[in-house]
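Tutorial handout. Part one gives the primary structure; part two gives the three-dimensional structure as tokens.
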Amino acid sequence: MKEADLDEQYARFPEIKRAEVQKFVDWIHAQPHFSAHFSEGEALHFFYACKYSMEVAKQVLDTNLTARTHLDEFFVNLDIESNELKRAMKTVSVVPLPGTTPEGYRVIVGKLSDLTTANFNYADLMKLYCMIFDLWMYEDGIQKGHVIVIDLKGCSLGHVARIGLLQMKKFLFYLQEAAAVRLIGFHFINIVPFMDKIMALMTPFMKKELTSILYMHSDLNEFFKFVPQNMLPKDYGGPLEETCVAKELYYQKLMDNRKQMLEFETRHQVNEKLRPGKPKNASDLFGIEGNFKKLDID
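Part two.
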């Protein structure tokens, strides 16, 4: 893992005052429950995502690291050699695209590559997705904005039935409250007839800020207005390698950087025993888990 060059990032975003970021870094290193190895580059992502508000950045960072500590299914045991992640790599293609949209936004595409429902484990797939996203951003540095694309081609009701409501609640909480990213668009393409079932999982946990950037496309020509075809893989009529091939670049990176990703996991967690005041747990973030059931499919 090669962290993005700091000087280059500050040069691209001259409105960011490095002295302010350094104050943020000093604050981070003064927190006894945070890792002493949290870098300036990692801090910069939060400062930028929070639009240069020091207080908001502090809050989001604490929420992020707390969520990563207690969301075991998504952020704990980031060992790419585990059987669960090996299966996930065969099940989905997660591909950060080269280049940017005309507005300067970076794009990441996710789609099923194995349609066997028995191999679909939502928590493991989200763990892999987040690992790819983390590695990508670590090496890519801050960007004007990010666009998430979910291709539903091949998705069945059987896949949807394997997504737990609590899992969806936790992931959308993380995305909306804790992710160090300026999310510009969240696009579903090749939408399915049972899209209402998917939205029934998501809608209860979505804030208006996410709803306002959520797009569903049955016509790819409409999608191309947001993400030009000339920056997409051959799956979508673009010039790039098909997603099933392109994904191997990042999957191989995860394997090559297995040790560093495990260190990344440790660096992005909190030590609750050292937290000033009362330690936090999962219920402090999400409330009592209760009897969440999987979505009933008629």
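Part three, for discussion. The two ends are 46 Å apart (CA to CA). Residues 35 and 266 are 8 Å apart (CA to CA).
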